[in-house]
Amino acid sequence: MNAVQKQYKMKGMQITEYELDVPLDWASCDKNSVNHSAGNTPTITLFAREVVDINRADDELPLLLFLQGGPGGKSPRPMPGSPPWMAEALKTHRVILIDQRGTGRSSRIDSNLISKLSAEKGRDYLLKFRADSIVADCEHLRKTVYGGRLFETLGQSYGGFITLAYLSQAPEGLAACYVTGGLAGLEESAKEVYQLTYQRVIEKNQDYYARYPEDANTMAKIAQCLTNETVRLPDGDQLTLERFQSIGILLGMGPGIDQVHWLVDEAFAGSDKTRLSDVFLEQVMNITSYHEGPLFAAIHESIYGQPNEQTNWSAQQLRGQLSEFDASHSPLMLTGEMIYPWMFDQISSLRPFADAANALAEYQDYAPLYDLEKLAKNKVPVVAAVYHNDMYVPRELSLKTASKVANTQVWITNSYEHDGVRQSPEVFCKLRELLLDQGGPLKSEQHA
Description:
Blueprint: E1 3-10, E2 13-23, E3 43-53, E4 63-67, H1 84-89, E5 94-99, H2 111-114, H3 119-126, H4 131-144, E6 151-156, H5 158-169, E7 174-180, H6 190-211, H7 215-228, H8 241-245, H9 256-265, E8 268-269, E9 275-276, H10 278-288, H11 294-299, H12 314-319, H13 343-346, H14 354-361, H15 372-376, E10 382-387, H16 395-404, E11 408-413, H17 420-423, H18 426-437
Parallel strand pairs: 4-5, 4-6, 6-7, 7-10, 10-11
Antiparallel strand pairs: 1-2, 2-3, 3-5, 8-9
Organism: Marinomonas foliarum
Protein name: Proline iminopeptidase
GO molecular function: peptidase activity
């Protein structure tokens, strides 16, 4: 086994870190082979962090693999009592946190790497970081580090997309799957997804202005300032109106509407309140810069890629048909989790990705991520939280998918937004209860 191991303790937790070499291109390898070091196959690093209650470190506990949202998001870093779901899971499980390939300590993709590649080579490199490759990485970890023991998985948001790919690709490695706000559409195109999410974004804007009607005037004043002047962010990028509108990505989270309100509450400085404040510009830069995760923007539309279809900047195409997001609309409407081609010109951290992202938008030879026949015969128990007002993963698609994945039980709730599992342990507890009522996780012999 080619794994580097480090172990230490942190306030009631024992943490073990692993680094493994995995193939950059799983398509060129035998995924069932444990040793991939031979030959000329390029490798990248897969980083995993195992967390266990220090008082149960020697117990034979079930394995819970957390699949982070994104795409392009690293795993949460454990802190005492945080995130809430993990504090609950550690009572019964050994928790495994992987940095998905291209993120965190798993050969993070940055501008230095991508800028050295042509448009076509950059596109082809990014295509090796899709959900099917993440699943292959997880299977390699399961077989090498954990001796083939079954994983339970907790997939948040994009982690649910990965869960569906896992159930399609290697269900024999799974004992049970928890999904929170992540039952993706199985056959819908990027455009079909955005047709639903744009409407949900409009609803969230309406909720925002209903809660804080006085913010409409402040938003209009900000829009006028950005339209009439050249405003620079602390990193030197120009803050355009369309970039400012993208702070609406916050609106679908539990505290999101309030966060936007407090952001614009301090928008102006000076005795006459006509100058955009330093604190406002700093916060807007942090929300919209993608310095921490450029991979999110670079591959975002490709997660909806279907065979023989280009994504072709679907979010931009649809935005042009929706007058609600025009600069002249009153009140000013914020956009959501959409990535636009102009971002790769305006945002400095994304400029090196521009050629590869444009080439990816024109790509259409996607391999299918989901096996509809296998999902229809699924034996692995799946329990999923579907958030009624989810701005990012539309409930309509989630419920349609749930009907097509056998052995799936859904909990529909309007008590939480998309980040419910990060806000309260109740979401994980509720799903755990549903799973146990369903008979609990599978045993290895039940896969036979």
